[in-house]
Design goal:
alpha+beta; 4-stranded mixed beta sheet; 9 helices
Length: 186
Amino acid sequence: MDNKINLSFEEMWVKIMACDQTYDGLFFTAVKTTKIYCRPSCKSRKPKKINVEFYDDIQMVESAGYRACKRCQPEVEHSPHTQLIKKVTAYLINEYKQQLTLQDIANHVGISPYHLERLFKQETGETPRTYLEKVRIDKAVYFLKNTSYTNLEICYEAGFQSPSNFYKVFRHLKHCSPSEYRTQDQ
């Protein structure tokens, strides 16, 4: 399947705790105790971590015996473009380290760059570039909290081409520098 993403359990856990709709449709949260599955953005009460399983395919989660949440309706496609957007977002999440142009992304899904940007913005409220920056900052945050990499190593590990752009985007999205972020909550 084209839409498979490579996120660790911990990364997916962070997404569901934040009700992050960025990852809707790319993975599903299944709760063993209730036998219900949800979108990452579901606003329902969060389960205990030990009761959670993640699935990246709706058929797999349903064949494992889970039923769809009535609140977030993960089984309902909300738009005719949902599959295309899933394909684009999965590509961005998996290829975040690459130097991607709009043309590269458009080639991956087989439509023109102009059409891709217009559809993506219509469906997600942002451009593929800003989405990719969010994915990269998510990775940077993960590295800041879980590794001893330097900020410069994190900059390149997260797919940024220059430290100045990394710091600018990080500050814009997190309202602090990477170093300030690393020392929070410790």
